[in-house]
Every structure is written in C-alpha cells, then in structure tokens.
Amino acid sequence: MPTPNVPRYVDDRPVRFVLVDTVEESLQFPAGVVLADRPSASRRVLGALLALPVAACVVGSFGADAVGDRVDAWGGGAALASVLVGLVLLAVNWRRGDWLLYPVALVVALPALVALGAGPVGIAVATIALAGGGVAAWRGDRARDRRWARLSALLTRRERADATVAGVATEPVPNAARLRCTVTVTADAVPGVVWAFVELSSATFRPQAGQPMSVWYDPADPAVAVVSAAAPSVAGRLAPPA
C-alpha cells in the first residue's frame, strides 16, 4: 500500500469516503458513493455541452483585447468574469462531466481566437491551458474507471466492520482556510488492512486518531472499501499540519 502522506495527483485507490449527518446513517451502506464512479453516457453528453460555454469563456479571457476592439463594453471586469465562470464550469465538469470537454472546447475556441485577431501569446496560452486540462481530466476519468472496476463489487458483495481512525496527515490548501487530510483507517475485524482516503477539512470534518467510523469492504478483496463517518463523531479539533 502507498505511503499515505505521498501526494497522489490522480487518486485511483479503491477507497471512497462519505460524511453523513448521524451515527444511524453511518451504519447504512452508501451505495450512491460507489455509483458516482459508474461510467455513463450522461457524463460524456454533459462534457460536450459544457465545452461550448467554456470555449466562450476562453475567448473572452485569452482574447480579451481582441473582443474589446469589437465590443465597447468588454473590459478587464468582463475578462475576469470569463475566467471565474470558466473555472466554475470546469469544476462542474470535473465532478459530473467528461474529459471530452477539453478537445471540443479547443476546436471551438481556437478558430474563434484566430478570427478575432487575438495575439499569438493569448492563443498559445489558451491552447496549452486546454491541452493540459484535457490530459489531467483524461487521467482523472481513467482513475475513476479503475476505481469502478473494483468498487462495483461492493454493490453485491460486502461486509461491514467498526473502524477507527489510525492516523491523519494534513497539509494546507493554498489560498484556503482548510487542510487537505490524508486519513488512514483500520478495523480490528480485518487485521493487516489499512484504508486511506483524502478529504478536505471542514466545520463538520476534523479527523483525529481514535475517532470511530464504519467501513464496508469486499471480503474477497479487503483493500476495496467505502468508509463512512458521522459528522458528530469527527467534528473535533484538527491537529496542525504534519
């Protein structure tokens, strides 16, 4: 098993985590967490649809000067708004869409930038940004596929065990008052197995060693698991970064 505090830029570990409101809920198998990784045509459709407004945001930000020459009201504020809206759309795509967004947006945005007479620097940066984002999204989608290949077994074959937080490694998140927590979990009923997942801290999630959780694991492949925690049980005082 990989060392918990080593950064994983594409997390394909077959371990998912869900935070629920009550202890009673933490004792119920969260099938939705597993199904979130299920391949679906709707993801690809959403990615293709989001590509059009993302392409418009790329043109409005990286081709801001060229657009401003044609639209008097287009200025720095509009360009900044394009960047922010684009980032929101990309976040939605990361969670619900598909890597297809990036090549489609690239095919739409580049001819528009050229037609508007955008500068070569803006065109180059837009190309690099979309190409790089596409590679990252493709890797993320493949990681989700690898997780699904193993996690899907839990829908038909699973056992539950009381678990305990064995350790928490934290690191600050840039420009945010939150910590990135790599949490390791063990269960006495499954000796020798350690499950690890990454989650951001929040007002209701401040994990500490010794806190109780539930784990559903595949008895044929115990490394595959879904970990569940009740918010009242994990809302303690988070330790400083380690």
Overview in brief:
With 242 residues, the protein is an alpha+beta fold.
Q: In words, what does this structure look like?
A:
This protein has 242 residues and is α+β, with helices and mostly antiparallel strands. It is 44% helix and 21% strand. A 6-stranded mixed beta sheet has the order 1-6-5-2-3-4. α3 packs antiparallel against α5 (76-96), α3 packs parallel to α6 and α6 packs antiparallel against α7 (120-151). The longest helix has 32 residues, at 120-151. The protein is elongated and about 65 Å long. The two termini are 20 Å apart. The model is unreliable at 1-9 (pLDDT under 50).
Rg to the nearest angstrom?
22 Å
Please list the strands of the largest sheet in the order they lie side by side: 1-6-5-2-3-4
Class inferred from helices and paired strands? alpha+beta
Q: Biggest β-sheet: count, sense, barrel?
A: 6 strands, mixed
Number of strands: 6
What pattern of helices and strands is seen along the backbone?
EHHHHHHHEEEEE
- Unreliable stretches covering 5 or more consecutive residues: 1-9
Distance between the termini: 20 Å
Roughly what fraction of the amino acids lie in strands? 15-25%
Features:
242 residues, alpha+beta, 7 helices
Topology, pairings included?
Layout lengths: L14 E6 L2 H4 L4 H5 L5 H22 L1 H7 L5 H21 L4 H16 L3 H32 L7 E14 L6 E8 L8 E6 L11 E7 L2 E10 L12
Parallel strand pairs: 1-6
Antiparallel strand pairs: 2-3, 2-5, 3-4, 5-6
Helix pairs in contact: 3-5, 3-6, 6-7
